[in-house]
């Protein structure tokens, strides 16, 4: 989670804007993410957090500005998005596992069908990842046979098995029963410790504080404050951030 000032950012957003019909949802977004850095995005419902993540892996196209991913310049009309989507993994609030497929087949789908990797090699990686989160014994189960927390951990493994360079997490514990939240956050903390570059949207403030290298606070489509977690949580600079934090304490 450390980096020198000279290191090249893995992601750089410059003046990114996005509207749906006539509603401006993102405006003047400038954001730089270093390799290995954990960025947590906070902000009230509807402020554009999900849209921002979706723009980062091409699920939504930006209208304005540009996004640089490593050396790739992604302009609004650029065609490089398919390649990017494979290298930036995303996990959502609802797990999106295919119900008719076993856990292992859910995980192998991308590596085999999209990345055209060999079955033996992908399988070995999938099993190693399952082992690491303690779910190797669920390899041949169907999603409905698993708890919500287990399904979400499988969804994380499924994204990791594509060997992404960045992982995006959009409120991945919001739909879980409280007792399952911890096991999912634990997996994410572990990933952060291993040096994964992560951008996380969450309403778990304790977790945000523990995992983040940087907090980005959004309101009404703009980033209005960013800084290290210690100063953000103890001395938020804007009234909007203060009001936002008050609802949690
Ligand atoms: P957040 O994740 O912070 O709650 P979102 O990014 O989901 O916010 O939404 C930001 C705004 O964009 C909201 O007003 C939402 O209604 C609108 N929005 C999101 N997705 C779409 C879409 N596909 N079409 C139209 N409006 C959308
Ligand atoms: Mg959202």
Fold topology:
Blueprint lengths: L8 E12 L2 E12 L3 E5 L6 H8 L7 E6 L2 E3 L6 H7 E4 L11 H12 L4 H14 L15 H13 L5 E5 L7 H16 L3 E5 L3 H7 L2 E6 L2 E6 L1 H6 L4 H8 L3
Parallel strand pairs: 3-8, 3-9, 6-7, 7-8
Antiparallel strand pairs: 1-2, 1-4, 4-5, 9-10
Helix pairs in contact: 3-4, 3-5, 5-6
The site of adenosine-5'-diphosphate has 10 residues, from helix 1.
Which short descriptors sum up this protein?
single chain, 26% strand, Amino acid ABC transporter ATP-binding protein, 6-stranded mixed sheet, binds magnesium ion, ABC-type amino acid transporter activity, alpha/beta, globular, 4-stranded antiparallel sheet, binds adenosine-5'-diphosphate, 249 residues, coiled coil, 9 helices, ATP binding
Question: What can you tell me about this protein's structure?
Answer:
The chain has nine helices and ten strands. The two termini are 28 Å apart. It has helices spanning 49-56, 81-87, 103-114, 119-132, 148-160, 178-193, 205-211, 229-234, 239-246, and strands at 9-20, 23-34, 38-42, 64-69, 72-74, 88-91, 166-170, 197-201, 214-219, 222-227. Strands 6-7-8-3-9-10 form a six-stranded mixed beta sheet, sandwiched between helices. Strands 2-1-4-5 form a four-stranded antiparallel beta sheet, covered by helices on one side. β7, α6 (178-193) and β8 (197-201) form a beta-alpha-beta unit. α3 (103-114) crosses α4, α3 (103-114) packs parallel to α5 and α5 (148-160) runs parallel beside α6 (178-193). The protein is α/β, with parallel strands linked by helices and 249 residues long.
